[in-house]
From TrEMBL:
Its EC number is 4.3.2.1. This is Argininosuccinate lyase. One of its GO terms (biological process) is L-arginine biosynthetic process via ornithine. Keywords: Amino-acid biosynthesis, Arginine biosynthesis, Cytoplasm, Lyase. It catalyses: 2-(N(omega)-L-arginino)succinate = fumarate + L-arginine. It comes from the Bacteria. Pathway: Amino-acid biosynthesis; L-arginine biosynthesis; L-arginine from L-ornithine and carbamoyl phosphate: step 3/3. The gene is argH. It comes from Stigmatella aurantiaca (strain DW4/3-1). PROSITE patterns: FUMARATE_LYASES.
Length: 450
């Protein structure tokens, strides 16, 4: 078993201890394998560039790594339990396919910066995918808002009827939240877009490696300079990424909560299509909003996984510690969960069936109390006096508002949702996502076929 590990020295290993230290890396690392292959190909090209690897060996390695990358993408790459992790499996596969050059690929790096690079490449890919899905969902909310812009519904504070609102105003809120997250994504990207390779175990290597060249090959905007900080950033960037994911889910959780309420018989403002509901094993009449409730639960689950990553990474001194191995599964699980949540929400928004008459009936005269006070103030009465006058009318039953007296035509109000501006911002974010994705794809293609 010792000969299968990168660190083995020919000594016997305790089976129980070995299994405990390996954990679930052979399964988890399958997601990292294609990124590890791409990073290794860039590393091989750099070694050849600085004279530490022959051009012939480099070409053999890159060709083999391209095949392994494609196999990993297709789910055909395997990691045997005795190999511990994907890095060992990748090197073993290289040795099997190209012989001696495969034993040279690890020169100038450690598994510590190797896994950091694979994780960084994965995070870059994942946040672009998540950004694209968030943009798609934002577009669905904007379409919903435009389609139902003028349909009235009550606005609520403290879960009590408060002021007039519209389905357009309601839908726009969640589009705007996603637009803000797309802006925040660029800040997260700037943190993730730093190449860690060359830090090795956290103190650099006494070889003339070219870290800037690797970063350029892989499309990173810069090198993460400090080798110790490379190791210290384990958990930091995962936490930042999941914090962004939780922020997205926090906005969606409010929409899902609203949806769960508005689709009840007591509210009756919205109906879910039958295909988006489930039934009861005992009550024939039930059409349960399980998809809404489970999606809402996913939002809370995401916060739990983010907290798990934060807890594992915290409370440690600087440099590398094996505790970091436990960061991978919750990080990957959380990213997958958010991707599924965004996909489900995007399918759900366009099929919501608005019951406009029921929502309009809920907009009784009392919703217009503040509006009427504004009307009186517009005629010259101090607002506090107008407020008290309306309160007296409500108390003695003489309140009769002019529902058409005031309409919120300022930017963002029910009469001016700002949809054109929102669509322009969405187009800008989509263009950035597309351009960034294309640039990274071009970098990968140049690594495989210069």
């Amino acid at each position: 078993m010792a000969e299968e590990t990168l660190w083995g020295k020919g000594l016997a290993l305790d089976t129980i201890i070995h299994g405990f230290t390996v954990g679930d890396d052979p399964q988890v690392d399958l997601a990292l394998a294609p990124h590890d292959a791409l990073g290794s190909a860039a590393h091989a090209r750099m070694l050849a560039r600085v004279g530490l690897l022959s051009p012939t060996d480099m070409r053999a390695l890159v060709t083999a790594l391209r095949s392994l990358h494609d196999e990993a993408r297709a789910g055909a790459f395997t990691i045997r339990p005795e190999q511990e992790d994907g890095h060992t499996a990748l090197e073993a596969a290289l040795v099997e396919r190209v012989g001696e050059p495969g034993r040279r690929i690890h020169l100038g790096r450690s598994r510590n910066d190797q896994v950091q690079l694979a994780l960084r490449l994965l995070l870059r890919e994942e946040v672009l995918v998540l950004g694209a899905r968030a943009a798609e969902l934002a577009g669905a909310f904007l379409d919903f808002a435009q389609a139902h812009a003028d349909k009235p519904m009550p606005g609520y504070t403290h879960m009590r009827r408060a002021m007039p609102s519209t389905f357009g105003l309601w839908g726009t809120a969640f589009a705007e939240a996603l637009l803000e997250e797309l802006e925040a994504l660029k800040g997260l990207w700037a943190r993730v877009d730093r190449c860690p390779l060359g830090a090795a175990a956290g103190f650099g290597v006494p070889l003339p490696i070219d870290r800037e060249y690797v970063a350029t090959l892989l499309g990173f905007s810069r090198v993460q300079r400090s080798p110790i900080d490379v190791q210290n950033s384990r958990g930091r960037l995962e936490t930042a990424t999941l914090s962004w994911a939780c922020s997205i889910s926090g906005g969606l959780e409010k929409w899902l909560w609203d949806l769960a309420l508005f689709t009840t018989e007591e509210f009756g403002f919205i109906t879910l299509p039958d295909a988006f509901t489930t039934g009861s094993s005992i009550m024939p009449q039930k059409k349960n909003p399980d998809v809404v409730e489970l999606a809402r639960g996913r939002c809370r689950e995401l916060r739990g996984m983010a907290r798990q990553v934060e807890e594992v990474a915290s409370g440690l001194p600087s440099s590398y510690h094996r505790d970091f191995q436990l960061l991978k599964r919750p990080t990957l699980t959380a990213l997958t969960s958010l991707r599924e949540l965004l996909e489900v929400a995007t399918r759900l928004v366009p099929v919501l069936q608005i019951r406009a008459e029921a929502a309009a009936r809920a907009c009784d005269d009392t919703l217009y109390a503040a509006h009427h006070a504004f009307t009186l103030a517009g005629r010259g009465l101090p607002f506090r006096d107008a407020y008290r006058e309306v309160a007296h009318q409500l108390a003695d039953g003489t309140f009769r508002p002019d529902r058409a007296a005031l309409t919120a035509t300022h930017l963002g109000g029910a009469g001016n949702l700002g949809l054109e501006q929102a669509r322009a911002e969405l187009a800008t974010s989509r263009a950035w996502l597309t351009d960034t994705h294309r640039a990274l794809a071009d970098c990968a293609e140049r690594i495989w076929h210069p």
